[in-house]
Specification:
Length: 539
């Protein structure tokens, strides 16, 4: 991958830089919060995917965001980490503090420039905003020569004023100028005009890269981003699965594959290894608990499925009849029968490699292999998807000592009787039992957990997916809970949907306990530590 210091000297005028904001704008989707561990896992996958710049958060927004940007900036090998800041010296300082661990980093600073935002949101005149650009872009440049400036609500900004502010930001040292369609209001023809005008009227535009940042309120984010590139922009800001504020941002996988597939019309290059797109989509979906819609372009479950007889017939004769890109080009492998209960550790490890899990720790492999053996006893056919679910499940619990663990579960369900669950939990080292009835078996299970570990959280989401087809398929359950404005997502997979439900809820609860203790260390924190030490000593 080309490092950022070379970007402005690039001779390849058709290289388009991919700026991912899944962990910043994407996390602004209501309920899409990601834990630190999940962000680090995502960052590693993004780094491998070939994303040029990764916006890991808004460091001043919360201690959690600050920590995430800090840790992400330490693990990236190729991608450049970026942090967001308003026009405030404190924001910029905080950004620098979080990013300084990386050999190269980007400070992204923004202010609104539309009449509506300047008057009603900022209560500032256009002259004051102009002065603020001078002051804050110049200030950010003290920390790095890689400064990006954004004019928020750009597409509703007066064009002459935008040209003046862009010229000023470049003069003060911004190397990237981002034009956000903050409210997803523009259309391709209008956005083309905006980028064209900037390219033609801003005298120093050759000293910066123009960037698009399009929201999807009208379903036009990808089309607008591509129109921007065709007009001269050379950076696209986007998110995996298109997650983001309200209707989301331009989907990274879509803009990248559109340029690759229609390279005859859009002769642009990115540094993305497209065969990892499917993996990136899964990692983000798992971390956020946001499922990918079945018919989602590029990464949806049905994106390469051919149901109708006519289509299947055509595909058998020549794949090009109904396929404009291959599933392999985005990392989708045909479902294959892979392994059975006699497969050993070595074959399992090999399989993980072919599925793209190249740098997982031995602990994760060992944990996943144990689960694989249990699954192989229960389930006749084990598919790639089953193995992916097992490893993802093991990655979630890697590096964590859970405060609460499920020891056993019995559920009585069916017609006539009230549904009942009997459960044994290990709660901070104490083994406890309870039994509860409920409005359905899942309700009974969650009530048992609440009885054994009293807590007060709101259940925001409970979702079940079958990993593969058939009645013996594994179920992946996602649970999102909320407590005092903080949310966590728990996930678990099992052939028994009710066991997966209990484990997913406990996974979310264990994460909440860790989150709680980070802000207010208390007795539980001490107990977790003690338990960890005991484990390490083999007690
Ligand atoms: O949508 C937007 O305007 C933004 C900016 C902060 C870049 O996300
Ligand atoms: Zn945005």
């Amino acid at each position: 991958m080309i490092s950022m210091h070379k970007i402005n000297k690039m001779t390849d005028k058709n290289r388009v830089y991919i700026f991912d904001t899944t962990m910043r704008d994407g996390e602004q989707s209501p309920g899409a919060s990601m834990s630190l561990e999940e962000k680090i896992q995502i960052a590693r996958v993004f780094d491998e995917l070939g994303i040029d710049i990764i916006e890991a958060g808004f460091p001043i927004a919360s201690p959690g965001d600050f920590e995430a940007v800090t840790e992400v900036s330490k693990v990236l090998k190729n991608s450049i980490p970026a942090g967001l800041s308003r026009h405030s010296k404190k924001d910029i300082d905080r950004c620098y503090e979080a990013l300084k661990h990386a050999p190269r980093f980007r400070i992204h600073t923004f202010i609104s420039t539309s009449p509506l935002h300047m008057k009603h949101k900022l209560n500032k005149s256009s002259e004051e905003v102009y002065e603020s650009i001078k002051e804050h872009v110049t200030y950010a440049r003290k920390f790095t020569d890689d400064v990006e400036w954004s004019c928020e609500d750009g597409t509703r900004t007066d064009m002459d004023y935008m040209c003046k502010t862009v010229e000023l930001a470049i003069k003060c040292g911004a190397k990237t100028i981002n034009i956000p369609d903050t409210v997803g209001y523009t259309v391709p023809s209008e956005f083309t005009k905006i980028i064209n005008t900037l390219m033609n009227k801003v005298p120093n535009i050759d000293k910066a890269i123009l960037s698009t940042h399009c929201h999807n309120d009208l379903g036009l984010a990808v089309a607008n981003s591509l129109a921007g590139v065709q007009a001269g922009a050379r950076q696209i800001e986007c998110t995996i699965n298109g997650i983001g504020e309200r209707a989301g941002n331009a989907a990274l996988e879509e803009v990248v594959m559109a340029m690759k597939t229609r390279n005859d019309l859009m002769p642009y290059k990115t540094g993305i290894n497209t065969t990892l797109l499917s993996k990136a989509s899964k990692v983000v979906s798992n971390a956020t608990g946001f499922p990918v819609q079945f018919n989602k372009a590029i990464v949806g479950k049905n994106a390469f499925a051919h149901e109708s007889g006519i289509h299947q017939d055509g595909m058998l004769k020549n794949r090009n009849t109904y396929e404009i890109m291959t599933p392999e080009s985005v990392g989708v492998k045909q479902t294959s029968l892979v392994m059975g209960k006699h497969s050993g550790r070595h074959a399992f490890k090999d399989k993980l490699n072919t599925l793209g899990y190249v740098d997982v720790t031995d602990d994760v492999i060992e944990n996943a292999f144990g689960k694989f053996k249990v699954l192989a006893d229960k389930k006749k056919h084990i598919y790639d998807e089953d193995i992916i679910a097992l490893v993802d499940d093991s990655l979630i619990i890697d590096n964590k000592v859970n405060a609460i663990n499920l020891k056993s579960l019995k559920v009585f369900a069916g017609t006539g009787e009230p549904q009942k669950a009997e459960m044994t939990l290990d709660v901070f080292g104490d083994v406890k039992q309870a039994s509860e009835t409920g409005d359905g078996p899942v309700d009974a299970i969650f009530k048992c957990i609440k009885k054994l570990y009293p807590h007060d959280v709101n259940l925001q989401l409970y979702q079940v997916h079958a990993v593969t087809e058939g009645t013996d398929a594994q179920a992946t359950v996602s649970v999102r809970i909320e407590e005092n404005g903080k949310t966590t997502v728990g996930q678990a997979a099992d052939t028994d949907t009710l066991v997966a439900s209990a484990n997913a809820y406990l996974n979310a609860l264990n994460k909440m306990i860790i989150k709680r203790n980070k802000t207010a260390p208390g007795m539980e924190d001490v107990k977790i530590k003690n338990k960890k030490t005991e484990k390490m000593r083999g007690i």
